[in-house]
Amino acid sequence: MVVIYLSDSYKGSTLSSLFAYNAGNTSGHTKKSTVNSITLFASSVGDIVGGEIFQPKDAPSYIPGKISIMVLFSVQLVAILLLRWITQRMNKKKLACIDVRF
To answer: What are the extents of the domains in the chain?
Structure first.
């Protein structure tokens, strides 16, 4: 039961957020369609690989599957923090270039 909560608790909101991010940061219909197709393909491949990590021989504890989920969550956290740092840096540069006049 814990495995279900660990693996599928974030899927719906994350995929829709990725599609919204793609739409907001990609210009042109063809590029948007291509980026969304790649996103959906990568998500589907992840679903297939994720299902193969949990083998019946590891039942009932599924330790390798739980370890892989925690490793991927850790990688995701690092990626989020890296994106936050990059975005904050870009915003500081942008604010430094703006001439504020009232």
So the answer is: 9-53, 57-102
